[in-house]
Amino acid sequence: MAQHALVTGSSHGLGAHLAARLAADGWKVTGLGRRPASETPGTPGVDHLQADLSRPETLERITDRLGEAPDLIVHNAVSYPPRPAHELSLAELEDVFRVNALVPYRLTLDLLAATPDTRFTSIVVINSESMFHADRDSGAYAASKAALRVLTGSLADACRSRNTAVATLLLGPLADPDKVAQLQRVAARRGVDEAEITRVFLRKSNPDLVIEELIDFDACYRSVQYLAGLGRAANGMLCRLDGGSAGSLI
Ligand SMILES: NC(=O)c1ccc[n+]([C@@H]2O[C@H](COP(=O)([O-])OP(=O)(O)OC[C@H]3O[C@@H](n4cnc5c(N)ncnc54)[C@H](OP(=O)(O)O)[C@@H]3O)[C@@H](O)[C@H]2O)c1
């Protein structure tokens, strides 16, 4: 029987890619996102669950719908704050923390509680190197990802004696289509090579990373595959795909 994977934030961006690749590799995939199924890529093999993770009542609905934990859970959904951190209301700050940190934590605990320990469960939590660099604009996002990192460590500890592995995939700037299109427009306007513009962008936006290219979605998928394939050895693991040094290599 096909193994079951849940990918949150599968209606767009990286999550849509991960869900499609898992389905193509034979997984039975439940994808979760806020928008209705008609506005998702509609990938064959991906069953869309419309749910708003910022709403407290959503959690119970998801656990009821899924029952036992899927064999693989990829916590990928993200709420990017609509404005700089210092302009956010308390309610907006709470939404960001709920989607980015609190729901992945609580949903994992609830699903594992309903799952017999004879079944192995792999949990991959997508995080961001931006948690190392908060400035006045990005503070809320960075803090929510830092909270996610700490909660993920705590989950891994709670799973030590379980048939479960909780791992983090920490990513740097992704080659998402919007960012790539924007860089292509700048390159065309300035009459220079796209690769050169990308290098300039990365040096300015992420001076402590040692990468010159955006990270492609498929490298992320292969990292998820790798972490899931490690079995229990991946518990507590942090896999960095971010050209990252957090300053230490420079
Ligand atoms: N993009 C980057 O450069 C970058 C860099 C490092 C790490 N990351 C990490 O990679 C992951 C994917 O990022 P991305 O840029 O690909 O994201 P994205 O394109 O903005 O997609 C976010 C996904 O999360 C879903 N989502 C947002 N709010 C939600 C809510 N309240 N309830 C349910 N679903 C919700 C969205 O669903 P709807 O669209 O249906 O609302 C969408 O499917 C995130 O964990 C992010 O932190 C990204």
Automatic annotation (TrEMBL):
InterPro entries, per the entry: NAD(P)-bd_dom_sf (IPR036291), Sc_DH/Rdtase_CS (IPR020904), SDR_fam (IPR002347)
GO molecular function terms attached to this record: 3-oxoacyl-[acyl-carrier-protein] reductase (NADPH) activity
Protein keywords: Oxidoreductase
Coiled coil: none
Entries under Pfam families matching the protein: adh_short
Enzyme class (EC, first level): oxidoreductase
Enzyme Commission number(s) from the entry: 1.1.1.100
Organism domain of life: Bacteria
Name used for this protein in its record: 3-oxoacyl-[acyl-carrier-protein] reductase FabG
Origin species: Streptomyces cyanogenus
Gene name linked to the record: fabG12
